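Tokens for chain A. Residues wanted.
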């Protein structure tokens, strides 16, 4: 048994555990085991009942508001289990500060995370807050609504139906994001040459409607990743990167990003791929596995999501990732998704049915065809190469994103 994000060991009761209580109350439940050393060995607690009372008193005296927790004892091992549930009345503060878990540590939240906790505690989304401006215009939104929904006039009632007002009839942040001019960051797009030091084109679209940002981002892929191929008398459009996959990725970045963060969505255009980085990580209540499977549609910005749905820019029911993968169904190199606490990255490779590999690397690829998952020893046996050569070739293929690694130590497996 090892410590992890949702499990912490304490050999004795000191106030340091209160940071972890704050973290679990703010960002998802977890457990603290008292009477267990950092290495997982049991040292035990001498007076279980008195220690339980001490733990409860420390929490009640130090954490504001009172968190939701349970205390259990294991009389055989002399261990105390403190189970903390995620609370409804965030933020939960210890000495005036809120905490979150980062791997096995409990760290103070930053200002953006604290704002989000306050909103969650008030059962609000950032986009629902008043934006503080009453001079907003919506020509871009009006044009798109009339085009997509066959509306002749976009009235205040329609804007209200879209959810662009607060309860006291003020424009909210969603309205500002859809307005022709606003004070928000946007999308920073850069076209690179053979290295990141070679910038061929650059465009930053900010302080304007997210609809304009979306369409400007589409113009870049059409400029650099599409061309016409003439076959006899027919003209055929060729996509180096599937436009429908790119559309999904950009739309998801706009409607899922954390707009309270002063940071651009960054789209990097390379000769062999496009990288789209969206600030804010995953919305609360959804795991990386659920995001990848598309099991749950959990929008951070439901008002924006509804507008994009009405424009037919997205599917409402969380199928974006699956639609991206479907666009690459017959491609050798698949899209890649990287998720951290603060950033979601989507990497869309140029469509190809060929690997760019050496003859030695090709032999490794051939061994792993048809969905095989093999250890390095099995690859050595199948190829006849030495162990050091196989590991060196695997590293090269990993750098090219051709090989995936699962497991650790002796259980490490490699697959395409």
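Reply:
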């Amino acid at each position: 048994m090892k410590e992890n994000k949702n499990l912490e060991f304490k050999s004795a009761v000191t106030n340091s555990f209160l940071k972890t209580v704050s973290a679990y109350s703010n960002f998802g439940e977890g457990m603290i085991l008292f009477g267990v050393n950092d290495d997982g060995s049991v040292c035990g607690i001498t007076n279980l009942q008195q220690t339980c009372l001490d733990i409860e008193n420390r929490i009640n005296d130090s954490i504001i508001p009172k968190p939701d927790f349970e205390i259990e004892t294991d009389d055989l091992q002399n261990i105390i289990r403190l189970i903390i549930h995620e609370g409804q009345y965030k933020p939960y503060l210890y000495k005036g500060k809120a905490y979150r878990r980062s791997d096995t540590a409990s760290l103070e939240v930053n200002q953006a995370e604290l704002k989000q906790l306050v909103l969650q505690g008030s059962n609000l989304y950032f986009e629902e807050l008043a934006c503080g401006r009453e001079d907003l215009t919506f020509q871009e939104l009006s044009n798109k609504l009339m085009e997509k929904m066959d509306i002749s006039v976009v009235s205040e009632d329609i804007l209200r139906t879209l959810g662009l007002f607060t309860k006291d009839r003020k424009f909210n942040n969603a309205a500002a994001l859809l307005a022709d001019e606003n004070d928000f960051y946007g999308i920073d797009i850069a076209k690179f040459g053979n290295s990141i030091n070679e910038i061929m084109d650059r465009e930053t679209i900010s302080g304007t409607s997210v609809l304009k940002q979306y369409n400007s981002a589409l113009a870049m892929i059409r400029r650099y990743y599409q061309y016409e191929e003439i076959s006899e008398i027919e003209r055929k459009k060729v996509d180096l990167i599937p436009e429908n996959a790119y559309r999904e990725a950009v739309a998801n970045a706009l409607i899922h990003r954390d707009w309270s963060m002063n940071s651009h969505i960054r789209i990097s255009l390379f000769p062999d791929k496009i990288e789209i980085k969206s600030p804010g990580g995953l919305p609360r209540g959804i795991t990386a596995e659920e995001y990848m499977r598309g099991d749950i549609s959990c929008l951070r910005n439901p008002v924006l999501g509804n507008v994009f749905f009405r424009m037919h820019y997205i599917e409402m029911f969380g199928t974006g990732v699956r639609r991206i993968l479907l666009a690459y169904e017959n491609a050798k190199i698949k899209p890649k998704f990287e998720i951290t606490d603060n950033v979601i990255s989507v990497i869309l490779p140029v469509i190809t049915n060929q690997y760019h590999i050496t003859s030695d690397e090709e032999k490794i690829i051939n061994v792993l065809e048809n969905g095989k998952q093999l250890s390095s020893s099995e690859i050595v046996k199948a190829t006849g190469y030495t162990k050091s050569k196989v590991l060196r070739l695997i590293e090269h293929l990993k750098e090219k994103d051709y090989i995936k690694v699962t497991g650790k130590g002796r259980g490490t497996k490699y697959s395409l």
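DSSP finds 14 helices and 18 strands in the chain. The CA atoms of residues 25 and 86 lie 4 Å apart.
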